[in-house]
Amino acid sequence: MEKNKLKKTIIKIFHKLKLPKKHADICADAIINAELVGAQTHGLSRLKMYCDRIQKKLINPRPRIKLKNISQSVTHINADNSIGFVAADTAIKKAINNAKKTGIGLVAVKNSGHYGMSGYYAEQAVKKNMIALVFTNAPPAIAPHGAIKSLFGTNPICFGSPTGSKVPFILDTSVSMINRGKIRVASRSNSKIPEGVALDKYGNPTTDAKKALEGVQLPIAGFRGSGLAWMVDILSGVYTGGNHGGKVKDPFDDFSGPQNIGHLFIVMKANLFQSNYKKRIKENIKRIKKLPKLKRLKEILYPGENKFRRYNKNYKSDIKIPESIIEDIRTLLK
Description:
The protein has about 325 residues and is of the alpha+beta class. It has a domain at about 5-175 and about 220-270: Ribosomal Protein S8, Chain: A, domain 1 (2-Layer Sandwich), CATH 3.30.1370.60. It is about 40% helix and about 15% strand. The chain contains 11 helices and 9 strands. It has helices spanning about 5-15, 20-35, 45-55, 85-100, 120-125, 180-190, 210-215, 225-240, 275-290, 305-315, 325-334; strands spanning about 65-70, 75-80, 105-110, 130-135, 155-160, 170-175, 200, 215, 260-270. The strands form 2 sheets. The protein has a 7-stranded mixed sheet with strand order 1-2-3-9-4-5-6, sandwiched between helices. Strands 7-8 form a two-stranded antiparallel sheet. Helix 1 (about 5-15) crosses helix 2 (about 20-35) and helix 4 packs parallel to helix 5 (about 120-125). The longest helix has 19 residues, at about 85-100. The chain starts with a helix and ends with a helix.
């Protein structure tokens, strides 16, 4: 589907569910961006889920988002169960403005929902010549090290930096071996998942996506990944006032109440300590790209380069939408 047509369609769906035009526009941009960078698990595949939660009054379509300025640098946001895209958009813009004034912006969010891709927000700061750290927690998927019951989310860690070129450095990675969205897609299509990424509910290795969703996902790097998941749960849940310790509700399966996800945004001026930051980061990247590389590789890429290339390639063509999602869209438009 042509991008502008798709955006109008998404806006129409959200507007029908009483989201203000501005909020619907924010949501549409984030969803389409996920499709363009090749992260379909965070794009249109979640559209029906967001709509279901709005219809069941678990997402507030017209939230009264409250900002409490603790200092010129620090702001605490109560998102009033808004859709996550809107809460995160409000937060990253506030963090950027705070950083412009003082050099650093720290914004915590509570009472939010799933906001799509962390890198999408970090990139907004990077475009303003700022460094960004973004954290959010998620529904239980990973077992703490030594346990066979999931409690931590796949809790992504995101870092963004200017590079002195048009291609930003964006590291946006979950702390699980693969993200949960890929397992959901595999479950929906009755496909196998790779070995070594999940256990069933009895603690046995599995390649069955449905059994993986009932069991636990494995973290990256064993106990280290579990520790990182715990760290993000503390920063984005305990610290912000959001749900934590396994209390974030699964957006697809748990309609017993709002998610109350927490987010944390840290934005810093890139030239705060070194006025020649762009020159230094260019030198840093150049040194690494010049290293001897594996024969099968043409070049060493930094995080964000592949995503940037996919975006530019996909932007030139229409967005391919699976028939199952087209059917969801038709239903939502009725």
